[in-house]
Amino acid sequence: MSASATTGLHTGQPRSRVDGHAKVTGAAKYAAEFTASGLLHGVVVSSPIAKGRITKLDITAAMAVPGVVEVFTHQNRMRTAWRNAKFQDEVAPPGAPFRALYDDKIVYSGQPIALVVAETFELARYVATLVHAEYDIEAPSTDLRAVRGSAYVPSKKRSGINPPPKPRGDAPGVLADSQIRVDAEYYQPAEYHNPMEPHASTVIWEGGGKITVHDKTQGVGNTQAYITNVFGLKKDDVHVVAPYMGGGFGSGLRPQYQLYLTVLATLQLERSVRVVLTRDQMFTFGHRPETIQTVSFSARQDGTVTAIRHEAIAETSTFEDYQEVVVNWTGLTTSCENVELDYKLVQLDRYTPADMRAPGAPTGQFAFESALDEMSYKLGIDPIELRLRNYAETDENQGLPHTSKALRDAYRLGAEKFGWAGRNPQPRSTCEGHELVGWGTATGAWDAQMQKTSASATLTPDGKLTVATASADIGTGTYTILTQLAADALGLSMEAVTTKLGDTDLPFSPLEGGSWTAASAGSAVQAACCKVRSALLGFAQEMPSSPFKDVTLDQVDFKEGRLVLRNNPGIGVAYGDIMQASGLEQIHMEESAARDPAVQKTHASYTHSAVFAEVRVDEELGTVRVTRIVNAICAGRILNPKTARSQIIGGVVFGIGMALHEEALDDSKIGRFMNHNFAEYHIPVNADIQDIEVIFVDEPDDMTSPIGVKGLGEIGICGTAAAIANAVYHATGRRVRDLPITIDKLL
Amino acid sequence: MQDVILGTSVELPQAVMQSVSLNLTVNGQQREFVVEPWTTLLDLLRHEMDLTGTKKGCDHGQCGACTVLIDGRRMNSCLALAVMQDGKTVTTVEGLAAPDGTLSPIQAAFIEHDAFQCGYCTPGQLCSATALLQEGHAHTPEEIRELMSGNLCRCGAYPNIVDAITQVLAQAATPEVA
Fold this sequence. Notes:
Chain A is of the alpha+beta class. Chain A is 24% helix and 24% strand. Chain A folds into 3 domains: 34-139 and 196-247 and 252-283, Aldehyde Oxidoreductase, domain 3 (Alpha-Beta Complex), CATH 3.90.1170; 148-191 and 287-449 and 601-745, 2-Layer Sandwich (Aldehyde Oxidoreductase, domain 4); 452-594, Aldehyde Oxidoreductase, domain 4. In chain A, the strands form 8 sheets. Chain A has a 7-stranded mixed beta sheet with strand order 3-5-1-11-8-9-10. Chain A has a 5-stranded mixed beta sheet with strand order 17-18-26-27-30, with helices on both faces. Chain B contains 5 helices and 5 strands. Chain B has helices spanning 41-48, 105-112, 122-135, 141-147, 158-173, and strands at residues 20-26, 29-35, 67-70, 73-76, 88-91. At the A-B interface, helix 1, helix 3, strand 6 and helix 15 of A face helix 1, helix 2, helix 3, helix 4 and helix 5 of B.
């Protein structure tokens, strides 16, 4: 079925979220909100040291308190799987995944050392303070700059993450001979996802070894597989249900330690248990890795980029080689014959970093898009013009054409909307009151991916349709777009369609992430609905004196709950009548969808963006306000402009946080992040956010996915921090290469 | 994070806390509770009453996800001990709609303007916005942004939240013609 087949009343139209009512009334249930009779509460005790050994762990005082059921430690926990592979989830990087309460070894600050389980939450919280631990402390290494010399190329590639492409041309040679160069170093601190919902698991003991798991996860299948592997349980005994997730941004891709601890306690006690991490503890697992980048590139006077070197050194843990794509974007978005890209890791005594919204992309793009901006001033060429002169028509990293790339239109439309033509190119040229005004731009890019996904569609004689897949809606609008697609596929109102997600009993879906869910789950739902269409026609043909006897699918329409002849829509039959005639209680179809493997070999597919930012910088105070952002997005087909716009705005807000606010501050003496709360780790608040305009550029693409969709979850953040940094330079003449751009760096 | 003082011993705690009874009117219903003094209003709502619409985001009064209305004023329920609310009236997100289920203007405006994504901060935003509208301090988008800044939203729905509140403000300012 082609993309055009689902163009209908709903798809492509701005529609309100179908889960909106549940979310504005408090009815939507998140992981910590499921309950059971006799539910126990667990509170995690965290290590204050970053490296060493537990020499004494005394739980006597804790256990003496009435109402305490158990204090789990490495000394009394049940046995779990032995091999590392059993702990490796769907997106685990190479290495040995962290195991909570495994032994006496401490490998990072905040590591869980005990789980207190009690009859009430308050009691567990109190008793956690009574667990007494003593340590043999070793000096931790958490200062990335100090140990950058130990950087290495990871020996084992992380599945799904492309290492830098082989060098093309002779970048070092050309750079050495070039007069016009930019050479600079960029720094991005560790950042934490900080979804508003803390990580939580509620595990219901169903008896007979069966459990129902409500986990904060971006993939119920990943949670289920982790539990069955680690605890040696059967798939049938582990039912994972997570219909809502209070924000993920990547933090819910890998199973986090509270899941392991909750399942462990439930199985060992044979009682239902809930564990919710505190906000402080949300800073004790994966994060966007601290990264140092060096960029050298050269250009001719006409702006042609002649050579690029871009190297990133990023932190990982001592036990896993986390990898993301940081530098490849540079070779993708700029056409250049001589390119050398490097990506290395440094081990620190921290938890393994994790994928965080567009992992790697805004990091690498901050560096290179800042360098491009710097070059534009050197050459006296407008930053947009410089990008157009080096426009990459193809993916030069892979030597493949794009399935579509409308980035030129994005530059043009974004610039028009922003009023870019009126920009005075001189830095510090505009002052309003006590504020310097600056305009900056940057390019963003992210993969347009699709993963094999299955879905079901069930039609009942009352004309109601239920579509289902085990994917997740983490705020992305998945419930809504699937409802739109299904309603159009069968000519129904959206009210007649129910979408089910987040349940391992539903057809298989991989993790929700990487911006692939709309393309993947959307294509799967459409494919399942198409099977229902075929079935309806088939059954209609069997009806006595059927007008559909000799017609094919392309000669009929599915409209307003009826199968009708396309060239004579007056002739038709209601779905209920078709099903009644065949004695059917329902038509249930399941189908999978995946990217065309031929296209995968011959084409590359990405989303792109052109970001324009206006900042106002108080000359005396150094405070930066982002007063305007225009983000022109090329992402193929847009299923729902309303929820799509929200996705991009959300990404831009994340990017503003990256540019101006977010920084996990390390105290390298004790190897610990000091600002592990919302008062000290700043994320944008309402007053920080002003005008954000989103433009969806027309970008027809019939190759990227069966429904022409490329995905939107990440592209909004890509390039945003760079555009803001470039605007700050234009406003102040100060080039800040060290994120976040705080007051101290501007005074 | 639990800061453990290295090498010190701890005394055994008082085993039993003295429970206290209190009366609360929650979403129009009067209820009597016996609670321990260390119970916050947030945990009472979520654990004892199963009113899980009110969210816990930080437990430190830093994020606003737990915002409820206490005697009509917006408060962080994570910072309010339950025992101190005796005799008070509490409205949570579950109590914002009319008894027949008709959504309040701000709830409807949140859906219309897509003023949320994951939905986790939404109950707090709604309670906060409900009080904001009654306070009468906010007249411009800038004032709304400032006075809604106690409610964090990591999905970044802020512009849509401001639009939703602006719309309800405008509706309130324009009396309907009968």
